[in-house]
Design a protein that fits this description.
By secondary structure, this protein is mainly alpha-helical. Among the domains are: about 25 residues, no CATH class; about 80 residues. It has twelve helices and no strands.
Length: about 220
C-alpha cells in the first residue's frame, strides 16, 4: 500500500505544485502580522522533515499485525488518497504563493551547512505554492490519529506522537514553508474526511471483528 500511495500521490502533488508555480497566480494572500512576526529558525527543518522519516513510516511501527489492523491500514491508505485529491483540487482552485519563504532565503548566509543542505533539497523539489490546506499538517494528522488508535493502552506512545505532531505542525511556520491559515485549514480538512469517510468504515471493520469473535 505504501508503494502504491507513493507512486500515485508523489507525482500528483509535484505536478500540481509546479503547475501552480508556472502559472504564478495567487488568489489569496493569507499573510497576517503574526506570520511575519514568527521568527525563522533554521534548525526546525529537522522537525519539519519528520513528516518523511517519522510520520510516513509510522503505520509500519504502530499497525497491529492482525486481520483487523490490515483492514484499517487499507482504510488509512484510501483516506490518504482522498485527502490528496481534495487538497490538490483546492490548490488549483485557490492557489497561494508562500512568499514568506523569502525570510528563510535572507538567512542562507548564516545557516549551518547541514540545515542549509536540508533546505536546498526541500526547495529544489517543492515550489512555494500549494499553501493551504497544508498537506504536511493534514497527512501527518491522519497517520497520528491511526497511530493513537492502534496504540490503545500505550499512553506514552500516544502522547509522544500527538505532541510531536503539534511540534511538526508549528515547524511549518518557523521554517517559513507555510502561513498560519495553512496550518489551521490543514488540521480542519481532516475532520470531514475522518467523520464521514474514515470513521464509518472503521465502524464496519469493528463490527466484523466483533462478529468473528462471537461466532
Amino acid at each position: 500500500m505504501a508503494a502504491i500511495n507513493v507512486t500515485i500521490l508523489t507525482p500528483f502533488y509535484l505536478i500540481t505544485n509546479h503547475l501552480m508555480s508556472w502559472r504564478g497566480t495567487t488568489v489569496l494572500d493569507p499573510t497576517t502580522s503574526l506570520d511575519l512576526a514568527i521568527p525563522f529558525m533554521a534548525w526546525t527543518v529537522v522537525i519539519y522533515l519528520s513528516l518523511f522519516y517519522l510520520f510516513y513510516p509510522l503505520p509500519l511501527l504502530s499497525m497491529p499485525d492482525n486481520k483487523s489492523g490490515r483492514y484499517e491500514a487499507l482504510i488509512m491508505s484510501q483516506g490518504l488518497i482522498v485527502l490528496f485529491i481534495i487538497s490538490n483540487i483546492w490548490f488549483v482552485i485557490c492557489p497561494a504563493e508562500v512568499h514568506i519563504r523569502s525570510q528563510a532565503l535572507e538567512n542562507v548566509d548564516t545557516m549551518h551547512p547541514v540545515f542549509l543542505s536540508m533546505f536546498e533539497g526541500l526547495w529544489s523539489m517543492d515550489e512555494p505554492y500549494n499553501a493551504w490546506p497544508s498537506l504536511h499538517v493534514s497527512s501527518a494528522l491522519l497517520f497520528t490519529l491511526f497511530a493513537i488508535r492502534w496504540w490503545k493502552g500505550k499512553p506514552v506512545l500516544q502522547w509522544s506522537v500527538g505532541i510531536w505532531w503539534v511540534l511538526m505542525s508549528l515547524s511549518i511556520l518557523t521554517t517559513k514553508q507555510h502561513f498560519i491559515l495553512d496550518l489551521i485549514t490543514g488540521a480542519l480538512v481532516m475532520w470531514p474526511i475522518w467523520k464521514w469517510y474514515i470513521q464509518p468504515m472503521l465502524d464496519r471493520v469493528n463490527d466484523i471483528s466483533i462478529g468473528e469473535i462471537t461466532s
